[in-house]
Amino acid sequence: MKKAKTIFKPLSIIAIIFFITVCFSFYKLGFTSNAPKDIDLASIISQESSNYNSSINSKPFTLNGSYHINKDLIVPRNRIVELMPGTTLTFNNNTRLIIQGQIIAKGTKDKPITFRSSSDKHFWRGIHIEGNENFQSLAELVHQNFEFDDLADSSKFIPNDFFLKKDQYNIFQYCVFQNIRDKEFYEHKLNNHKAAIEVYNSLVKISNSTFKNIPFIGGIQLKFSFGLIEKNNFHSCGIHKTIHSWNSFTIIKDNSIIQESAAQDCNDGMWIIDSKTAIINNRIIGKGDDAIDFKNSIGILIDNQVEQCKDEGFDIDESSYAVLINNKAQRNYSHGLLVSNNSKVISYQNIFNNNLLNGVQVRNASSFFSYKDKITNNLLGIQCVFDLQKYIDNNRVFYDKFNWYLEYYKKNTIKSNSHKLLNKLQSSVFKAKDALQNISELLAKNPSLLTENKVLFAQMIKNNKGHIVLVQTEIANNKHGDVLQKDYSKIIISNDVESFDKIIPIKKIIELQSTYRNLEF
């Protein structure tokens, strides 16, 4: 018995040492630790890329687990990085993820992919996607001649070839983005064109994701890009322009933008500039400015609900063209719908009620065609005006904006064909400049135009063809009246559907609902 005990002790010691060695080895391999891997991913990706096939369709570099990013992480061109469900990337203060190749981040409902700062006490700077500069040709497609009939065919409205390039999309699905802010967060105007996810000259799909604690910058911004943004939740009190589309094609569906906060600069729910977009079944509550703001854009808006925004529910401005079907704009602090500055809106079965000012305001040579809308319980139902002073101010502001853009592109000449954008800006701004010059000359000769005779002045403005057609539209219980006509517009009120159908075929409007509600990607 003594001999057996003597043999057992060394064997026990050897077994314990072996067990500890195995456990330590597994720990080193990351199998027993949930702590982030503090490794230089940028160097690994770059090193692998040196012998990498130039085809973007090659096997992706895969990340699976938790990683700590201590400096800007760049995904090189012709390189795909794929993040597996449950992956977490934590970023040091002021660091960014820069995608020059392609990213595929497909989480699941139970295992989302998380992008966040490494500490709640500081912020990282978000995701910057740099695509192919040839995408700037999108601007020409966006601004090509467009008729109402083109809306009925989604392939005319949004070119089919973009739907066919699914293998080239940057994808974020079931992701969480939090604690993002630019390092110069205090400059609201400077951050007007920055966002948690910035997409340039590229393709992107962002779905089923959540944005948290993103103060003083936007949520998603696209420039010269094509994007599908659907089923996301934005619940950040400080977020600026939640979704910003500039010279892009965008489909924006089933998103929730909820922000109970005081008014602040740059705080639109959706800011659509020089773009074509389909905006379907979104809910926007409590934004500090407009819920949806169009500038020189074309769009179709279906089944959206906007409430309690500090300015307009829908702002269709600066020569925009929009079709609104079955939307609700309620309890907003200004107008339910504003149509201004040579814009055109076709409106079918929308509800504009309980807004603090007008249900609908139409001004400055714009047109509003309404069929079966409900405009009730506002301060004023429909107001139609030519606002001379605002017309002057808008042109002056536009001219100032152009000078700012010009200086910006002089200092940031990144794209080889950026002059194309400048040419378009110049073409637009010269019109504004001419209008401003004409106004100045007229006012110099007759200052009383500003205060005494706006009607006479309005008649002198070219392209002053704004008018309103109301067919079977319910306008009732508005505190200061149902329709106020002032200065310039022709208003037709009728129960005869044929009078509306001659302008816009009602059958086609109804067809638009099924076309875009069922739009698949």
List the helices and strands and how they pair.
Layout: H1 2-28, H2 41-49, E1 61-63, E2 66-69, E3 73-75, E4 80-83, E5 88-91, E6 97-99, E7 102-106, E8 113-117, E9 127-130, H3 138-142, H4 148-151, H5 154-157, H6 160-163, E10 170-173, E11 175-178, E12 195-200, E13 203-207, E14 210-212, E15 218-223, E16 226-230, E17 233-234, E18 243-246, E19 249-253, E20 256-258, E21 270-273, E22 276-280, E23 283-285, E24 292-295, E25 298-302, E26 305-307, E27 314-317, E28 321-325, E29 328-330, E30 337-340, E31 344-348, E32 351-353, E33 358-363, E34 367-371, E35 374-376, E36 380-385, H7 388-411, H8 418-445, H9 454-460, E37 467-471, E38 474-476, E39 483-485, E40 490-494, H10 497-501, H11 506-517
Parallel strand pairs: 1-4, 2-5, 3-6, 4-7, 5-8, 6-9, 7-10, 8-11, 9-12, 10-13, 11-14, 12-15, 13-16, 14-17, 15-18, 16-19, 17-20, 18-21, 19-22, 20-23, 21-24, 22-25, 23-26, 24-27, 25-28, 26-29, 27-30, 28-31, 29-32, 30-33, 31-34, 32-35, 33-36, 34-37, 35-38, 36-39, 37-40
Helix pairs in contact: 7-8
